[in-house]
Inverse folding.
């Protein structure tokens, strides 16, 4: 994740607003757009895009942080993906290799009228999916209003005799319309405006579909199409008109739906219709005139309460959350209040019903805070944090952990991993200490016990979006006492192995924000910087852990982006692959092949000269390295990405081989078991922090520090005693003058290096 403002909850998912209200989404549909349809966040009503599959994002992509479906972030966060879900493509939708190869944009941009309808109906669903990415002239040719009217009329015609499956290509027509609304919202200058003509066409189309008896079939075939048709209600902005569909699906839901992915998704998608309907005055008026949808949600959550804690519990908790959201509409509050209280009374903060309780409590706290005593939600954030994050552990003066459940062994291992990463980080970036006016002298790591616990509680406690793999909140580093923190969770899917998901990636954001990028998150967004922010976090995480980034190496073979293009990556124009895979590739290439250019760019980032850094990247470098980068990608994909070894730390030059200095080291240190290699360094008055690192060599040397005499294993101020030679010590406000350092041979060691930076 990027460096995020706590007061503006800004992340890769670009959640807008300090308060993060979410619903949990069902598994992704085979008819949704690919994850590459990511675009920037903007206020107002945006058609719903699609996300990548939960299973792939969370397991195969080892540093996934967020699905970049940014259009759903206004005014609150989007429905999130069900954790246990996997997307499945139906046989009717899965294209053959020949069909995929035959999918051409021109099939849709060069046709009008019946020829366009034939092209859409004859394409695979997978092919129509690609249209979510159209821009410019292609977007206009495919999705201008006349084209959309043509397809809406075609949907009306097939919907009249809808057979409950895709034999009449209903799915392709629905998805084409969804793509059009989506693209037009983000590129209206190219597509043009939508007006009365389209509204008068989409309404009869949806009317006909929902009037069809077969649209209620409980089956795989219908469910896949129905779930997309429910999303189309929201895409077209017809949320008020189709409230009856919302009520129908909630009322008709039964255990038979659970056997079919699409049917569950259709029910869950009604919550998006409700969630975003609040942005439309006509929707609020419709509910005010007929509040039965509120009582329907209360009845649904009450009837299916037993499902909480199970595979379909998200359907129940989402009903509660969206019922609670009606507290924001003053005329509807009198109806909503007792229903919210009713559901709160049948759920609890912890245990099986926690997800229902949390969603209701969050809504009540945000939208009806004056009546918190009625709901039992006063001081909600502090109460939940105290009850859930009960483990408190201090790694060092600059690092502490607040966890839901971690053993002493796990706490120690986490502290060691982060402490040792300090040395790795500083060795790569060669910084000269924190950037000016950065007061983030300590970090809190908040760790939830699982992804579901993170989704249940992190929004309440920290006001963040949780449709991601973790989030770093930088806050305002120029403010004294500002608390930087990142929020993460244990990866329950790899248990019994203990792993905090994205631990080293997120910690890199903290270090990078403190030592490489001046100011807060917003300060760095004046020019494109994401190639470095996310790419470097990936680079450090994979390189430090010694893990091969297989996804990125595979992606290198596509040659999808030129290096000069990657320098323009922003959160508005990116997707998950470009952000992480290609950010890593660009960063690794630059560090290995053009280190002096990286140093020049970092010098500008550190001074806050982001415009100057961008000019350097786009003008001084420009396209000069594009050909070499292309060739490097070919070699990397073939298994030769080049050496990952970092340039050696400069050796200290004082005549006394024991004396260290600023940002340099002493190498080839050795001692026998129980022996000591002594070192010292002189610090000027006012030095805010001294970082000492040891690394390399063989054996096991422990690192010791003392401020008033030689450091030994029996006389020291602080020490680092891990199982290898990789040790780190950070001393805040060290004493001016001579400071003493040593390596003690827990076992005989040789070839070790000690560096100091301050």
């Amino acid at each position: 994740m990027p460096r995020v403002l706590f007061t503006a909850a800004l992340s890769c998912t670009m959640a807008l607003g300090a308060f993060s209200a979410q619903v949990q989404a069902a598994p992704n549909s085979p008819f949704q757009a690919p994850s590459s349809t990511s675009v920037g966040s903007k206020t107002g009503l945006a058609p719903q895009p699609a996300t990548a599959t939960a299973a792939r994002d969370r397991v195969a992509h080892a540093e996934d942080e967020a699905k970049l479906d940014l259009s759903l972030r206004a005014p609150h966060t989007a429905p999130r993906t069900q954790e246990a879900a996997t997307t499945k493509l139906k046989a009717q939708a899965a294209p053959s290799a020949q069909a995929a190869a035959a999918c051409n944009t021109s099939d849709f941009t060069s046709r009008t009228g019946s020829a366009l309808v034939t092209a859409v109906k004859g394409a695979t669903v997978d092919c129509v999916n690609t249209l979510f990415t159209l821009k410019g002239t292609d977007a206009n040719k495919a999705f201008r209003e006349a084209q959309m009217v043509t397809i809406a009329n075609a949907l009306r015609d097939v919907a009249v005799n809808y057979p409950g499956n895709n034999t009449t290509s209903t799915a392709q027509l629905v998805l084409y319309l969804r793509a059009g609304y989506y693209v037009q919202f983000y590129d209206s200058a190219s597509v043009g405006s939508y007006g009365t003509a389209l509204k008068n066409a989409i309404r009869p189309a949806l009317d006909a579909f929902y009037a069809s008896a077969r649209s209620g079939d409980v089956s795989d075939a219908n469910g896949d199409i129905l779930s997309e048709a429910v999303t189309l209600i929201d895409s077209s902005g017809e949320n008020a008109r189709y409230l009856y569909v919302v009520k129908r699906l909630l009322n008709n839901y039964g255990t038979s739906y659970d056997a079919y992915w699409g049917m569950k998704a259709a029910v869950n998608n009604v919550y998006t219709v409700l969630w975003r309907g609040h942005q439309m005055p006509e929707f609020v008026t419709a509910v005010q005139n007929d509040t039965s949808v509120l009582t329907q949600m209360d009845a649904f959550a009450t009837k299916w309460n037993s499902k909480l804690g199970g595979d379909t519990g998200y359907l129940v908790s989402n009903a509660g959350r969206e019922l609670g959201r009606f507290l924001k509409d003053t005329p509807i509050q009198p109806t909503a209040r007792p229903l919210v209280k009713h559901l709160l009374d049948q759920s609890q903060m912890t245990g099986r019903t926690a997800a229902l309780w949390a969603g209701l409590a969050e809504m009540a706290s945000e939208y009806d805070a004056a009546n918190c005593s009625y709901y039992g939600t006063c001081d909600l954030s502090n109460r939940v944090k105290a009850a859930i994050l009960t483990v408190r552990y201090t790694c060092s003066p600059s690092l502490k952990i607040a966890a839901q459940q971690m053993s002493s062994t796990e706490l120690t291992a986490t502290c060691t991993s982060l402490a040792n990463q300090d040395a790795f980080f500083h060795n790569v970036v060669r910084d000269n200490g924190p950037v000016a006016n950065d007061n983030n002298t300590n970090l809190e790591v908040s760790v939830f016990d699982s992804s579901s616990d993170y989704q249940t509680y992190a929004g309440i406690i920290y006001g963040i979006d949780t449709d991601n793999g973790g989030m770093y909140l930088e806050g305002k580093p120029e403010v004294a006492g500002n608390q930087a923190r990142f929020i993460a969770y244990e990866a329950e899917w790899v248990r019994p192995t203990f792993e905090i998901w994205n631990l080293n990636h997120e910690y890199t954001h903290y270090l990078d924000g403190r030592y490489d990028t001046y100011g807060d998150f917003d300060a760095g967004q004046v020019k494109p910087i994401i190639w470095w922010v996310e790419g470097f976090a990936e680079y450090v995480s994979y390189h430090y852990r010694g893990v091969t980034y297989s996804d990125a190496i595979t992606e290198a073979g596509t040659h999808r982006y030129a290096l000069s293009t990657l320098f323009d990556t922003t959160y508005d124009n990116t997707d998950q692959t470009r952000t992480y895979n290609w950010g890593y590739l660009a960063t690794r290439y630059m560090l290995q092949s053009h280190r002096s250019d990286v140093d020049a760019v970092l010098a500008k980032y550190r001074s806050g000269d982001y415009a100057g850094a961008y000019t350097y990247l786009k003008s001084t470098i420009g396209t000069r390295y594009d050909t070499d980068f292309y060739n490097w990608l070919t070699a990397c994909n073939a298994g030769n990405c080049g050496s990952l070894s970092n340039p050696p730390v400069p050796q200290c030059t004082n005549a006394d081989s024991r004396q260290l200095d600023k940002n340099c080291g002493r190498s080839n240190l050795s001692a026998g078991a129980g022996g000591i290699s002594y070192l010292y360094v002189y610090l000027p008055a006012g030095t805010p922090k001294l970082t000492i690192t040891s690394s390399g060599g063989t054996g096991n040397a422990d690192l010791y520090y003392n401020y008033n005499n030689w450091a030994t294993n029996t006389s020291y101020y602080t020490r680092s005693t891990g199982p290898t030679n990789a040790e780190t010590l950070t001393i805040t406000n060290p004493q001016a003058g001579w400071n003493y350092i040593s390596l003690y041979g827990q076992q005989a060691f040789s070839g070790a290096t000690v560096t100091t930076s301050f």
